[in-house]
């Protein structure tokens, strides 16, 4: 039998405002999306879980499937990249390595260099790992 793995000690670590595009009266606008970041551990490893806050009306990452629920995947993963970087800024964390996986998080590299370390003075190095060349997003 395979043991079920859960998140232990789950607690709200922070709420951050994440810049996000939206359509308003036929025009593209940018506004904040209140985002919750939860902290816990999985098999002794610290983890952070990110989602739009309850009550925001966002359907990002909602649906019956992991991929392609009732939301636009590209919009969802762009939001996820920005939300993670906003949390790093909010919590004053500067990781040594920003490890990105597949197309879902690839935009975080560009966002990091453009919005969070535009001068290139930070210590963070970015690594992109591609697991599945057939899934291009």
From TrEMBL:
Entry keyword set: Glycosyltransferase, Starch biosynthesis, Transferase
Record's protein name: starch synthase
The protein's Enzyme Commission number: 2.4.1.21
Molecular functions (GO terms): alpha-1,4-glucan glucosyltransferase (ADP-glucose donor) activity
Record Pfam families: Glyco_transf_5
Reactions performed catalytically: [(1->4)-alpha-D-glucosyl](n) + ADP-alpha-D-glucose = [(1->4)-alpha-D-glucosyl](n+1) + ADP + H(+)
Domain of life, source organism: Eukaryota
Pathway the protein contributes to: Glycan biosynthesis; starch biosynthesis
Domain Starch synthase catalytic: 30-136
GO biological process, one term: starch biosynthetic process
Source organism of the structure: Astrephomene gubernaculifera
InterPro entries found in the cross-reference section: Starch_synth_cat_dom (IPR013534)
